[in-house]
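Lab intake sheet, docking and co-folding queue.

SAMPLE TYPE: protein with bound small molecule
LIGAND NAME: flavin-adenine dinucleotide
LIGAND FORMAT: SMILES
REQUESTED OUTPUT: full 3D complex as structure tokens
PRIORITY: normal
SUBMITTED BY: R.K., bench team

The fields below were copied directly from the construct record.
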Amino acid sequence: MHYDVIVAGAGAGGAVTAVRASEDSSLSVLLLEAGPHYATASQTPADLLNGNENSYFAHDWGYEATANVAGRVVPLPAGQVVGGSSAVNTAIALRGAPEDYDEWASLGNDEWSWEKVLPYFRRLERDLDFDNEFHGQDGPIPVRRHTEAELVPVQAAFVRAMRALGYEETPDNNHPQSAGLGFHPMNKLDGRRMSVAICYVEPARKRPNLSIKGECLVRRIVTDGSRATGVEVETSGGSEVITGDRIVLACGAIGSPAVLMRSGIGPAAHLRELDIDVVADLPGVGENLDDHPMLGVTFAAKDGLLKRNDPVVQSTYRYTSTGGQERNDMQLMPVSQLATRSGRLVYAIGTVIYRQKSRGRLTLQSADPHVPPRIDERFLKADEDVRRLVAGVRLGLEIGSHPEFEHLSDGVKAPDTAVILDDDALADWCRSLASSGFHPSCTAKMAPAGDPMGVVDQHLRVRGFDNLFVADASVMPNCPRANIHLTSVMIGERAGEWIREGVV
Ligand SMILES: Cc1cc2nc3c(=O)[nH]c(=O)nc-3n(C[C@H](O)[C@H](O)[C@H](O)COP(=O)(O)OP(=O)(O)OC[C@H]3O[C@@H](n4cnc5c(N)ncnc54)[C@H](O)[C@@H]3O)c2cc1C
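RESULT FIELD (auto-filled):
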């Protein structure tokens, strides 16, 4: 079977690309996914529907990453199902700041300025709280904020403590100029995660020109000179090559660079080490790994006050670090409940660096698609990241020690007092424990021809190829200062439109 468009990977970027491209009924579109396809919400397992908790195990790739400069190895969750990480995530629906996209444009990608991307952020959403020039009312993804009355004890105490201390507040965290304390916009309705599987794929699944194939692993892209001719896939029935006119890779910031490298597209020296024939020497593939390093101060709670299904997040405080050059480069986020190894629930105040200076890298361990890539995040390599995380952890300690938490708190569990009292020890604690906020990105970045580390051009076309594209979190030049699900959906919106309209 031959298709006009093949989209490999059915996550936030890929599912949206395929659904928007297939709005042109004359285009045959195939959407491929390694994980299962649950056609309707009623057939979808509970872990994917429960928006109060992440799904970590049943639909996960099982990746591990070396998180930080101290070499700590941690699980790096990533959804393996139609919907991708959109189907397992925390359902925080934040946009980046206008400066993030204007920076992409200033790096030579003028298609991605704030002015150009705002219509797509509006198009993807149905904001149930705000109806103004910044928000959409007709898009597939419903977005709402928890109300004050819905706050669980940890969140309510956080909000009250911040208010008592006089921190600024914002009614809408997705307003372009917002900063400060506010309720998270979330793509969650009545506790149900509104993933791209539910919001985009389910309503489109009966289109005669859209085929969706789950449990189908993409091994590599097949190329002939400057053209991609098909994808080699593996199913329970064996391996085959499916051919297509335009091929869009959307396997996420871990999967897409891995597929590119297995296809011979990547840093030549690294590919040769693994006996992979070099098709295109693109040194940027797998480099520039960005993410949001995060670390929480944890607190023991008095008996019976935390509940296992309490929504994990509801409120947030976005702020600019002292001496920081970028607005809202940091975030403080209370986590309502976390289970310890003993099963006892604790709570945390997490500090997130939204604009880190450090960058990591992703390489292959093997040409075998069943062997996961090597993921090296290198968090806190840059001293400025250490400084900001230490200050953020101190802020979390201050807020968590406010009298508004007295009825809840049974004391700080980590870090211990000796560490808190010693700046150097606290810096070491951060270096050894900083971990991922689950936003790996930027591993196949878009850039103009003059940047040797660019992988795709601003229309997402892989350098050196006429008809091969990447449309997911890997193409971001830098990670925005917000959780990146909505930005990944926005990328899919644009890629799908460009294909549908024949722009690419
Ligand atoms: C636990 C968790 C919580 C998160 N919480 C939030 C949040 O609250 N808010 C937020 O904004 N962001 C959150 N994120 C991040 C966000 O969900 C992702 O950044 C976003 O989904 C990235 O979109 P993507 O298209 O790049 O990748 P994905 O959505 O991960 O999609 C990639 C798809 O490709 C498939 N795939 C990969 N390799 C292959 C292959 N070889 N063959 C076939 N298919 C393949 C995968 O199975 C997956 O379906 C979270 C992520 C995780 C894991």
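REVIEWER NOTE: DSSP finds twelve helices and 25 strands in the chain.
SIGN-OFF: pending second check by T.M.
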